[in-house]
Amino acid sequence: MKKYLIPAIMLIIFEAIAITLWLTKDNLFYLFNFSYIGCALALGIFLYIKQYRHARRVTQLLVGLYMLVYLGLICNENMQIEGFWYYLFTGVFEAATIHYAVAKLFGPLIFGRGWCGYACWTAMVLDFLPYKTPKQPRKKLGWIRYLTFAASLIFVATLFLAHVGNMEKIMFWAFLIGNLLYYAVGIGLAFLFKDNRAFCKYICPITVFLKPMSYFALFRIKCDKTKCISCGKCKRVCPMDVDVTDNSRKRKNGTECILCFECVKNCPKDAL
Ligand code: SF4
Ligand code: SF4
Ligand code: SF4
Q1: How far is 47 from 49, CA to CA, in rounded Å?
Q2: Which residue among 243, 252, 267, 270 is best mutated to probe the pocket of ligand 2, counting the most ligand atoms within 8 A of its Cβ?
Q3: Which pLDDT does position 164 carry in this prediction?
Q4: In this structure, what is the dihedral angle of CA atoms 6, 9, 11, 16, given to the nearest 10 degrees?
Q5: What average pLDDT does this structure show over 69-78?
Q6: What are the tens digits of pLDDT across the range 244-262?
Q7: Whose CA is nearest to atom 4 of ligand 2?
Q8: Do residues 125 and 69 make contact, with C-beta atoms less than 8 angstroms apart?
Q9: What is the pLDDT of residues 97-142, one digit of tens each?
Q10: Where are the domains positioned within the chain?
Q11: Which of 211, 220, 263, 264 for mutating ligand 3's site (highest number of atoms within 8 Å of CB)?
C-alpha cells in the first residue's frame, strides 16, 4: 500500500487547495476545478505505478482537454499568457491568475515543469506527432521565446493604453486565434526539426516563467552513480535533451525536464 501514498498525497494537496479557495472566495467553481485536476493527476500517478505505459498521456488529455474546451471555449477564460496579463492588469484574481500562480510561477518550485508533461493543451496535441525523441541536434533558437513573451505583453498593454472596449470578447478571440497559431507553428516546427517538442524549446513564451522557477524544483530526477554504467540510453530517449546523469542543478538543459519519466522507464540499471 505504501506505493500508493504519492497519489493519495497529491489528491489531498489539491483537495486542500480546492476547499481553501472555495471557502475563501465563496465560489463553488474552485472546489470542482481543483478536485478535478487533483483526481486527474492522482489517476496518472496511480496508472504509472501500475506500469501502464500511457499513464502520463491519460492525465495530459484529462487536464489539457478540460482547460482548453471547458475553461477556454465554454467558460471563455483566456488561460494563455495574454489572459494572464489581462487579469493581472485589471487586478482580478480569477481562474487565469490562480492558474498561473499554481502551475507556472510557484508550483514549479516544487514540481518543476510538471505542467509541461501532464497538463499543457498545446503539448497534448504535439505529443501525438511522430518525433517523440528529437531526431536532430538542438538548435540555438531559445532566444525566440523572449520575443513571443514580449509580444504578448505589448499586445495586452497596448489594448489597455488605447482604452479599447469589449476586452472580454477580444480576449476570447485572442485565446482562439492564439491557440490555432500555437498549433500551426508547433506542428510545423515539429516536422521541420523532427522534434515534437521544438515549440516548447524555442517558441513558448511561458518558459520565461517556467525555466528559472524550475531551476529550484524540489522534485528532480537524480542519478545513482553507483548503479549507472554510462550507457547513454536516458539521454537518447529524453524528449528535452536533458543530461539527467549530472545531478547538479546546472545540468545541461536541466530546466527543460518535463518529468515524463521516459529516462527512468528506460534505464537498464534502475539508476534513475
Ligand atoms: S513549454 Fe509551453 S507549450 Fe510546451 S508544454 Fe510547456 S507550456 Fe506547453
Ligand atoms: S540509462 Fe541508466 S545506466 Fe544508462 S547512462 Fe542513463 S542512468 Fe546510466
Ligand atoms: S526523459 Fe527524464 S530527463 Fe528527460 S524530460 Fe523526461 S523525465 Fe526529464
Answers
A1: 5
A2: 267
A3: 86
A4: -160
A5: 88
A6: 999 999 999 999 999 999 9
A7: 231
A8: no
A9: 777 888 888 889 988 999 999 999 999 999 999 999 999 999 999 9
A10: 1-52, 72-214, 220-272
A11: 263
Distance CA 265, CA 272 (A): 9
The overall average pLDDT reported for the chain is 92
Nearest CA to ligand 2 atom 6: 234
Q: Which CATH class is domain 220-272?
A: alpha beta
Stated as kind and residue range, the H or E segment containing 5 is helix 5-25
* Distance of alpha carbon 143 from alpha carbon 232, whole angstroms: 28
Cα(238)–Cα(163) distance, rounded to whole angstroms? 46
Q: Which amino acid appears at position 61 of this protein?
A: L
Predicted TM-score (pTM) of this structure: 0.92
Going through the chain in order, the beta strands assigned E by DSSP cover: none
- What does the DSSP 8-state code read for residue 254? G
Spatial contact of 77 and 96, defined as CB atoms under 8 Å apart: yes
- How far, in Å, CA of 113 to CA of 210, rounded? 7
* Count of beta carbons in the 10 Å neighbourhood of residue 15: 16
Distance from C-alpha of 6 to C-alpha of 185, rounded to nearest angstrom: 36
Rounded to whole angstroms, the Cα distance separating 67 from 90 reads 22
Residue 257 C-alpha cell reads as 525536464
Cα dihedral 168, 170, 172, 175 sign:
negative
